[in-house]
Amino acid sequence: MYEKEMMALKTAIINEVEGYEFYKMAAEKAGDEETRSAFLELADQEKMHIDWLNEFKCKIDEGKACDFNLDSLQPAPSPKIFKWENLDRKSAGIAVSVYGIGMQMEKASVEFYEKNAEKTKINEMKKLFKVLAEWESTHYEQFAAQYEMLKENWWAEQSYAPF
Question: Model-level pTM?
Answer without folding.
Answer: 0.81
